[in-house]
Write a structure and sequence with these properties.
- This protein is an alpha/beta fold.
- The chain has 2 domains: about 25-65, no CATH class; about 75-245, Vaccinia Virus protein VP39 (Rossmann fold).
- The protein has 7 helices and 7 strands, in the order αααβαββαβαβαββ.
- Helix 4 links the parallel strand 1 (about 90-95) and strand 2 (about 115-120).
- Helix 3 (about 75-85) packs parallel to helix 4.
Length: about 260
């Protein structure tokens, strides 16, 4: 199991792909649809559309072929190819981690000496080297478990959090923005100075407040829509690098261990 162009333990790329390039399996070029839906008998319209999309999505087929738990693994891989924030030995927290596709990419790129904490309301199938914390990351008890597992400030906080779709674009946008704001509150508490925060949004007009907060807290904030994101989706990601610390973040001491 591998993602083309991943870093080895020393940070060098394997497989001959260059950082920032578009290796097969990342850009989508060269990928073939998995299958075609032969019949929709007995299915609702929405169910049929979802299944058709899954069957014809080349990233679904590629994730299955490479052993990844979700097609979203390629989104994280593409963002890291571009910005290079997954470093060997890093402490990483993945919010909304289930089923574990992003954690698989983190482990491949950060190596066996990384500390990777997966947090989700749903119980996640175990992954070697990943500490799974089941619960709501808003809860103090869950945050305490994450802090104990990290044993120091995090280098990267990832958030692929999403609320169940309501069918109303405005409502879904506001729900995911609330999750993004809460994820950033969490990141401020656990990130080391110089750390990285990656968060998913849905475009819809309410991003300005969060964007302003991120620009004050980080040296650089960039918008990115990975090619693995579906073209008809309003999904995009913010990649914030160079955490400045401030009143909340970076207060877990100066212990080493990959930060």
């Amino acid at each position: 199991m591998s993602i083309p162009g991943r870093r080895g333990p020393g940070g060098s790329k394997k497989g001959g792909a260059k950082k920032g390039g578009s290796p097969k399996g990342h850009s989508g070029r060269g990928l073939k649809p998995a299958a075609k839906l032969k019949t929709a008998k007995g299915r609702s319209v929405s169910s049929t559309r979802w299944l058709q999309r899954q069957l014809t999505d080349p990233y679904v087929a590629e994730a299955r072929a490479q052993g990844y738990r979700s097609r979203s693994a390629f989104k994280l891989a593409q963002m890291d190819d571009k910005f290079g924030f997954l470093e060997p030995g890093a402490r990483v927290v993945d919010l909304g981690a289930a089923p574990g596709g992003w954690c698989q990419v983190v482990m491949e790129r950060c190596g066996d000496h990384a500390s990777v904490i997966a947090v989700d309301l749903a119980e996640m199938e175990p992954l070697p080297g990943v500490i799974c914390v089941t619960g709501d990351f808003h809860d103090a008890a869950v945050q305490a478990r994450v802090a104990a597992a990290l044993d120091g400030p995090a280098k990267v906080v990832l958030s692929d959090l999403a609320a169940p779709a309501s069918g109303h674009a405005g409502t879904d946008h506001l729900r995911i923005m609330a999750l993004a704001e809460a994820a950033f509150d969490f990141a401020e508490d656990v990130l080391a100075p110089g750390g990285v925060f990656v968060v998913k949004l849905l475009q819809g007009g309410a991003e300005a407040e969060l964007l302003g907060r991120l620009k004050r807290a980080f040296a650089k904030v960039r918008h990115v829509k990975p090619s693995a994101s579906r073209a008809d989706s309003s999904e995009l990601y913010l990649v914030a690098t160079g955490f400045r610390g401030g009143n909340r973040g970076g207060n877990w001491g100066e212990s080493g261990g990959g930060v």
